[in-house]
């Protein structure tokens, strides 16, 4: 439960886990299950990064603007610098949902 987490660990996601900067992803909770691993690749460098984004993230949060199968929001972190970077991120990326081999893909 969220009450069990140390407040100094940062914000807690809708999935009741602490958000991890650069690894937690907000998704449409009506379409995606929290805890799903998602491989995210950007077509351009994100603000503050020297390379294109290419990493595994976990669907852990949601938001009112995150609607549809191909919408997401990367948790950049807390504080002024993270807010500045997050405010500048608005670009297309590709999402690859990872599922166990043999899982029902319907």
Cα radius of gyration in angstroms:
14 Å
Number of helices: 1
Averaged pLDDT, please? 86
Strand order of the biggest β-sheet:
4-1-3-2-5
* Poorly predicted spans: none
What is the H level of CATH, i.e. the homologous superfamily?
RlpA-like domain
The string of secondary-structure elements, in order, is EEEEHE
Described by the principal axes of the CA atoms, the overall outline is: globular
Helix content: under 10%
**Quantity of strands, as a count:** 5
Question: What does this molecule look like?
Answer:
- By secondary structure, the protein is mainly β.
- Helices cover 8% and strands 27% of the residues.
- It has 1 helix and 5 strands; from the N terminus they run E-E-E-E-H-E.
- A 5-stranded mixed β-sheet has the order 4-1-3-2-5, with no helix packed on it.
- A hairpin with a 6-residue loop joins strand 2 and strand 3.
- The protein is globular, with a radius of gyration of 14 Å.
- The mean pLDDT is 86.
Summed up, what is this model?
The protein contains one helix and five strands; from the N terminus they run ββββαβ.
């Amino acid at each position: 439960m969220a009450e069990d987490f140390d407040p100094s660990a940062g914000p807690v996601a809708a999935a009741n886990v602490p958000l991890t900067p650069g690894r937690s992803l907000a998704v449409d909770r009506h379409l995606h299950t929290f805890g799903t691993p998602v491989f995210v690749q950007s077509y351009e460098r994100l603000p503050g990064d020297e390379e294109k984004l290419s990493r595994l993230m976990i669907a852990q949060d949601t938001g009112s603007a995150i609607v549809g199968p191909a919408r997401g929001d990367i948790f950049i972190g807390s504080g002024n610098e993270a807010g500045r970077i997050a405010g500048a991120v608005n670009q297309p990326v590709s999402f690859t949902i990872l599922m166990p081999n043999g899982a029902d893909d319907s």
